[in-house]
Design a protein that fits this description.
Length: 365
């Protein structure tokens, strides 16, 4: 079996044991060390570690002091945490369609979606490639919108040399299957001193010092155990990313020129960190996306559908007054065609050849 992802945190064993033996396992010096290193990756002075990526999104919206009825414009093609965070923060979610070229929110659609109630633009850097920040950041500035990047899948990605997480508030996930993991965890990055200070107080039950409460806060803290898991990977981020890029290049080469299959691309000016390698099984393919997925599974090749529907297209959201359902034809089309193939660093050349051969065989190429 060639899995869709592999979790390897063996390099963290010594550091984790160091924390366990110290007896100080809650938030402490390891979290501080992790934050300092992560801030360097995002190119900003502040990185605030929290307990997961959803919390990163929620906390970022909370420190923006949104009022009921304030809107957040985001992508309809994303993991549900994006939408859940908006709702938990008490805001209204409005959606702008995506571009098929990068699976990210389309700036033209964003311009059409902005209303007088819009307060935040939340682009999602899906699969490891940043959205078009060259157009989105000026658009946000033009309308006076705060920028919150859902960079859960894009640690280390860049747009015109500028790292993900360096625009406004950047939100990262460190879940087990992400490029960098702490098992569970998240990070918020920012260059704004005031927002960083508010985030640190908010995550610690609203305390600046012990029993000195300044706001109604939460326990959003990361533990030193989790930080110790992530530090060795963070130190190897360049190597991890390069391996994923090599694997994606090999897949693109092997899967080129197949009728009914559209391979992903890295757009000019961007670096792709390939959290997922996602193809589109188009309408002229001899099999459907679901049929290809089933055949690959039979052949022992892991694959995944990320994501099968527009994020709002579920009963629990359809009648929610804080979810503004809109026409998003590109997102719906991509949700019907997208299929992710293994691209993780543990793949061998033989594994990559097997994946390519299997896909070509099923598609009759």
């Amino acid at each position: 079996m060639i899995p869709i992802t592999v979790v390897d945190v063996a390099a963290a064993e010594e550091l984790v044991l160091q924390v366990l033996r110290s007896g100080a396992i809650a938030q402490g010096p390891m979290v501080k060390r992790f934050e300092e290193e992560f801030g360097k990756v995002a190119g900003v002075p502040h990185a605030v570690a929290v307990n997961n990526g959803t919390t990163a999104l929620v906390a970022s919206l909370q420190v923006l002091d949104l009022a009921p009825g304030d809107e957040v414009v985001t992508s309809p093609f994303t993991f549900v945490a994006t939408l859940n965070a908006i709702l938990e923060a008490g805001a209204t979610a409005r959606f702008a369609d995506i571009s098929e070229d990068d699976f990210n929110i389309d700036p033209d659609a964003v311009a059409r979606a902005v209303t007088p109630r819009t307060k935040v633009l939340m682009p999602v850097h899906l699969y490891g490639q940043m959205a078009d920040m060259g157009r989105l950041a000026p658009l946000a500035g033009q309308h006076g919108l705060a920028l919150v990047e859902d960079a859960a899948q894009a640690v280390g990605a860049t747009f015109d040399g500028r790292p993900s997480g360096s625009y406004g508030l950047g939100c990262f996930s460190l879940y087990a299957t992400k490029n960098i993991t702490t098992a569970e965890g998240g990070v918020i990055t920012t260059a704004d001193d005031t927002l960083a200070d508010r985030l640190r107080v908010l995550r610690n039950q609203g305390m600046r010092q012990r029993y000195q409460y300044e706001v109604a806060g939460h326990n959003y803290r990361m533990t030193d155990v989790h930080a110790a898991i992530g530090i060795p990977q963070l130190e190897q981020l360049g190597t991890i990313t390069e391996a994923r890029q090599r694997n994606a290049e090999a897949l693109n080469k092997g899967l080129a020129d197949i009728t009914g299959l559209k391979t992903p691309q890295t757009l000019p000016g961007r670096t792709h960190v390939w959290h997922q390698y996602t193809v589109l099984v188009t309408d002229d393919a001899p099999v459907t996306r679901d049929e290809l997925a089933a055949k690959l599974t039979e052949k022992g090749i892991g694959n995944g559908i990320y994501y099968p529907r527009a994020v709002f297209d579920y009963d629990c959201y359809r009648d929610n007054p804080n979810v503004v359902v809109s026409e998003v034809p590109v997102a719906r089309k991509v949700a019907r065609q997208a299929l992710s193939l293994p691209v993780h660093p543990k793949l061998t050349d033989a594994d990559l050849d097997t994946v390519v051969s299997a896909v070509r065989e099923v598609l009759g190429a």
